[in-house]
Specification:
Blueprint: H1 3-9, H2 17-20, E1 31-35, H3 48-57, E2 62-65, H4 73-83, E3 89-91, E4 93-95, H5 105-113, E5 125-127, H6 134-139, H7 144-148, H8 163-173, E6 176-178, H9 184-196, E7 202-205, H10 211-219, E8 223-227, H11 254-261, E9 269-272, H12 283-296, H13 301-308, H14 310-315
Parallel strand pairs: 1-2, 2-3, 4-5, 5-6, 6-7, 7-8, 8-9
Helix pairs in contact: 3-4, 5-8
InterPro entries: DUF6282, Metal_Hydrolase
Protein name: Amidohydrolase-related domain-containing protein
Pfam family, one: DUF6282
């Protein structure tokens, strides 16, 4: 990166912030696949371009954009076209929430192709709903009518349509299937069904599962994700996510999270920030704080670097 590019990357940041703070070295080469920097009904602390510049200033390798309201593949492609010279790869994908088209094979097809035709364009992940699952709807104390409209994965028998077709599309494109916010039993069933249809890249948000479930998911070949948001103060107040309702999620203490992380092999764990709301630091700073928090609870720097570096980079095909 040239001196002028470094100046552009650090525009708006306090002088020497990335290099002087403890734990800044852990961000070098890191991949945060869970960044909320897109337009949102409760607004975001930074936009996509700012997120990319800040990641570059910290020496990060890539960021992944997540949005409950839209496919982020186009925004990622735009960021790469405008700021690719900074050396940070930006990728996007689709969370199949109702505002983003719902659980739709056609929406998945669009997401997988949206971009400018450059290498790496198109969705790198397809996610089941995060808030429109019956599991989360119950945690959010939603109405029975709302819960009935949300996704549930049956204990046995065929998956509801169009999930089989979507799994085939994910397998063919060789992108990540994120299981979204399912119950532990549903996540296990979903991973088994996805692998049976040829999906090889699987990511399961696992902060609220028990150690046995985390170990079983990793043993099935899935990656398990742990995010700063769930160990942060943002869990203490209601936030809007997909509508005007303000909801909370149960917090997970850092020691509890470290115990869960240790239930899986290092090469099956992905750490992410899940930052973007104003209650939390901007994504780069949030990830730094998260890594220091986990280190203070006993995880080694070598493990932290793998779980934020080579493991998510391989999972999301960064650089391919």
């Amino acid at each position: 990166m040239t001196s002028s590019e470094k100046s552009c990357a650090t525009e708006g940041l306090p002088a020497n912030l990335p290099s002087r703070l403890p734990g800044a070295d852990l961000l070098v080469g890191a991949v945060d696949g869970h960044v909320h920097a897109c337009p949102h009904i409760n607004h975001r602390s930074i936009d996509v371009f700012e997120a990319t510049r800040m990641a570059a200033a910290a020496g990060m390798r890539a960021i992944g954009l997540m949005d409950n309201f839209a496919n982020t593949s186009g925004l990622a492609a735009l960021a790469n076209r405008q700021l690719g010279h900074l050396g940070v790869e930006v990728f996007g994908g689709l969370i199949m929430e109702p505002p983003a088209g719902g659980i739709s094979a056609e929406a998945v097809r669009v997401a997988l192709k949206l971009g400018y035709g450059a290498p790496g364009d198109g969705a790198r992940f397809i996610s089941l709903p995060t808030h429109h699952t019956r599991h989360i709807a119950r945690l959010e104390n939603r109405s029975e009518d709302h819960i009935a409209r949300c996704l549930a994965i049956p204990e046995s028998g065929p998956l509801p349509d169009p999930l089989p077709e979507i799994l085939d599309l994910v397998a063919e494109a060789d992108v990540v299937l994120n299981t979204g916010h399912l119950s532990a039993a549903e996540a296990l069933r979903m991973v088994d069904a996805a692998r049976a249809r040829g999906v090889t890249r699987l990511l399961v948000p696992a902060s609220h599962y028990d150690a046995a479930t985390v170990a079983e998911l990793a043993g099935m070949g899935a990656h398990v994700e742990f995010s700063f948001f769930f160990a942060s103060h943002a869990t203490q107040t209601g936030l809007t996510h997909v509508d005007a309702a303000r909801n909370t999620v149960p917090p997970v203490s850092a020691p509890e999270m470290v115990a869960l992380i240790r239930s899986a092999p290092v090469d099956k764990v992905v750490l992410s920030g899940d930052c973007g709301v104003f209650l939390l630091p901007p994504p780069v700073e949030g990830l730094r704080e998260f890594l220091l928090l986990l280190e203070s609870c006993g995880l080694t720097r070598e493990a932290l670097r793998r779980m934020t570096g080579e493991t998510p980079a391989a999972l999301f095909r960064v650089g391919s």
